[in-house]
Specification:
Blueprint (H helix, E strand, L loop, with lengths): L2 H10 L4 H4 L9 H9 L9 E5 L4 H14 L4 E4 L11 E3 L2 E2 L2 H13 L8 H15 L4 E5 L16 E4 L7 H4 L3 H8 L9 E3 L5 H14 L3 E3 L6 E4 L4 E4 L3 E4 L6 H15 L4 H15 L6 E4 L3 E5 L4 H13 L5 E5 L8 H8 L4 E5 L10 H9 L5 E3 L3 H11 L5 E5 L2 H12 L1
Parallel strand pairs: 1-5, 1-6, 2-5, 6-7, 7-8, 13-17, 14-15, 14-17, 15-16
Antiparallel strand pairs: 2-3, 3-4, 9-10, 10-11, 12-13
Helix pairs in contact: 1-5, 3-6, 4-10, 4-11, 8-9, 12-13
């Protein structure tokens, strides 16, 4: 089997949520446990950290992995989705899983007589767990996919659980109230295992976490109940008691909340101060993280961000508005099962915008024309461009030095942009 054949099997022979949406969603742990048993329970060979939440999971997971690496550990990191290369999902000390390992695992799975039909996520998760075991990692940071209680990753017994925040996303699967969504995310809380809650300002959400932690005897810390820094500057230089002063590589208003969550987790893990500082400062180079308020250039300022729900856009909207004195050229695209009403409300409040409606190159894409029609119901008009690369070229041709070009709305829009730039 060649690498491209393995990737073709993973994408085209298995249900893939990022491509198909609801049709690929498989709640429950039965298949994950069956696969795990077939491959020798690899995740039991190293300690893990489990991270769930609506927004900020990726930034939190990557930064904690960077810190642990800076503390001298060999660190596995499993995240999703990828943006350009499938292997972004599975890293050890920042290095993507080799193509040969992907091919070998896929071939061995196909040669096995396992009475199950895994999804793309279930099989790639098992691939990650085995790769970390083969690499003899000291610890692995595991990001949940969708939800928590019934997410495939919930077969692990972690050293620490982290739930970043709760917002409305994937309501068809997780529930249409914050309490219901919190209940699903709280499903990763394990007996006796410490849990960090990054942000829970709503009393009803806080009670869900408190009740679950009390039920299973898990020590619980709410990161938003403590002031973790004595000062922070506009360029994201933090001065803290537990790690001194550091200049954070990840920017964006949402990173203030993520920083509190990460510091609380770092304290719980007893990560030394020098490793905390370096992890914050070098997370991008150490882990390969992309797509989080990612500055692509200046004059005009060019930024992309994977924020794709209301919780993300409550930060993105004001930040875009404040980022440049001139026109904000905003390229937007979404998938067709995303509730975008609240996002468009945030976009409408930005002001001085030139909107370009586009669509990502996935089956689930909402067409640019449909998006434009929906936007008009929110009083928003703009150009319709059917692909991201062309939309980006159009924005650059129009934007002046004092303007801004922003690309976002979906992981897949950012993925298309980065792929077009690389090519």
């Amino acid at each position: 089997m060649e690498y491209n054949e393995a990737i073709d099997f993973l994408y085209n022979s298995l249900p893939v949520f990022q491509r198909q949406g609801a049709g690929a969603y498989k709640p429950g742990l039965g298949t994950s446990i069956m696969l795990d048993n077939a491959f020798g329970n690899p995740h039991r060979r190293y300690p893990t950290i489990h991270i769930a939440g609506t927004n900020g999971k990726g930034s939190t997971a990557h930064t904690l992995a960077a810190m642990l690496q800076c503390a001298g550990l060999k660190v596995g990191l499993y995240t999703s989705p990828h943006l350009v290369d499938f292997r972004e999902r599975i890293r050890v000390n920042g290095h993507m899983i080799p193509r040969s390992a992907v091919t070998d695992f896929t071939q061995r799975f196909l040669n096995m007589d396992i009475d199950c039909s895994p999804s793309f996520f279930e099989l790639t998760m098992t691939m990650a767990f085995e790769h970390f075991a083969n690499e003899n990692v000291d610890i692995a940071v595991i990001e949940a996919g969708l939800g928590g209680r019934l997410d495939s990753t919930n077969i692990i017994s972690p050293r620490l659980c982290v739930i970043t925040n709760i917002s409305f996303d994937h309501t068809a699967f997780l529930g249409d109230t914050l309490e219901a969504i919190a209940g699903e995310k709280a499903g990763i809380i394990k007996p006796g295992i410490p849990v960090i809650i990054g942000e829970a300002p709503q009393p009803e959400v806080r009670r869900v976490f408190e009740d679950k932690a009390a039920q299973v005897g898990a020590p619980i810390t709410f990161a938003d109940q403590k002031q973790w820094w004595t000062s922070v500057t506009d360029d994201f230089t933090f001065t803290t008691d537990i790690a001194g002063t550091f200049h954070a590589a990840l920017r964006g208003s949402c990173q203030l909340k993520n920083t509190a969550t990460i510091l609380a987790a770092a304290q719980a893990l007893n990560i030394p101060p020098h490793a905390i500082r370096r992890g914050f400062e070098e997370v991008v180079s150490l882990t390969g993280l992309t797509g989080r308020w990612m500055v692509l250039g200046n004059e005009p300022l060019r930024v992309c961000d994977t924020g794709h729900n209301e919780g993300g856009w409550q930060y993105l909207g004001p930040q875009i508005a404040a980022s440049a004195p001139g026109t904000k050229h905003i390229i937007l695209g979404f998938v067709n099962d995303k509730d975008i009403d609240h996002i468009l409300n945030h976009v409408a409040r930005i002001g001085n915008t030139h909107l370009i409606f586009t669509q990502p190159s996935v089956e689930r894409a909402r067409s640019a024309a449909d998006l434009a029609a929906e936007a008009r119901r929110h009083g928003l008009d703009g150009d319709i461009v059917p692909d991201v690369a062309t939309a980006y070229k159009k924005a650059l041709a129009t934007a002046g030095k004092g303007d801004m070009v922003f690309v976002g709305g979906s992981n897949f829009v950012v993925a298309d942009l980065l792929a077009s730039i690389q090519n």
